[in-house]
Amino acid sequence: MAKSNPLIQGRTRPAFHRLSPVNINGAPGQRLMIVLRTQGCEYAAKNDGGCTVCGFANHAAPGIGGQGILDQLAWALEELPLTGVDEIDLLTLGSFLNENEIAAPVRAELLGMIAGLGGVRRVSFESRSEYVTDAKLLQSRRILGERTVEFGIGLESADDHVRNRIIRKGLSRDAFERVVATLARTGLDLLVYLLIKPPHLDEARAIADAVASVEYVAAVAARHGVRARMALEPVFVAPNTYLERVFLRGDYRLVNLWSVVEVILRTHQMGNIFVGLSDEDLSRNRTTGSCPLCQERLVSEIERFNHTLDVDRLRELDCPCRATYLEDRESGRI
Ligand code: SF4
Ligand SMILES: [Zn+2]
User: Which residues does residue 30 pair with via DSSP β-bridges, in sequence order?
Assistant: First the structure.
């Protein structure tokens, strides 16, 4: 992922951006993810830091105005290679639909800038549930025209204890399902972020949790007739988070890439899944991994899956470290 550079020639840059392969409604494409630097997440500010794994506050720019936010997208659209980009994920350090974080006119202008891009077939943005209204979603539909518009929400886990006690998401399943009903009424697609291995879950439980979460989201989306995509996010350890404290005292082990592969193999038939490999520029010892022999191959095969949705090559992967991983997982050592 590209570096986080606050100020270049007087213009604020996005907190992060990343170009990666994706599959759009059956066809391979390229996704540009941009995380706009905002004043930060209001939920985190009002709830003792917010979610226990989220390090977005590290990148916030308190006091940044609407122009500062617009400048970041203008910079991205001018400076990044957009040829071949089919999808833009326009993220923020909090909720795109919270008008205390992004004022309504700025939101409309950001969407209008994306609407001016010819080749983009899918656009997504993300928000906590409490800011979602029919009017805001209909407005985004209107501005973005014929493109697929996807609404992203961090559910993280379908399990209430994992989501609200461990991750401290502050999101009920009822509220999540109300959002899905709103999408059905307004004609947007659903993008749900799910974590692989939040704190306090061992490897086996983490796999089971991710699989059950995909199953739940697929069922809710089907019940409402909404097209859904699940972004599975292997947890990484961001600075200044509860997770970092647990990690530094030796009580958290990063998810093994073999678990990520297993989650893909066990869920790909349930719906449209995607593995987010964002890492906020963290060093390798804070992000998912396997062993030096297979690490790069597994990452590139996972990215290939994101592009093609084909699991055949993932099934064939092997490495000497895999047997040890399976033994450790079986015994609960990891
Ligand atoms: S994960 Fe989202 S809701 Fe939670 S603290 Fe971070 S930005 Fe806020
Ligand atoms: Zn290996």
Answer: 21, 85
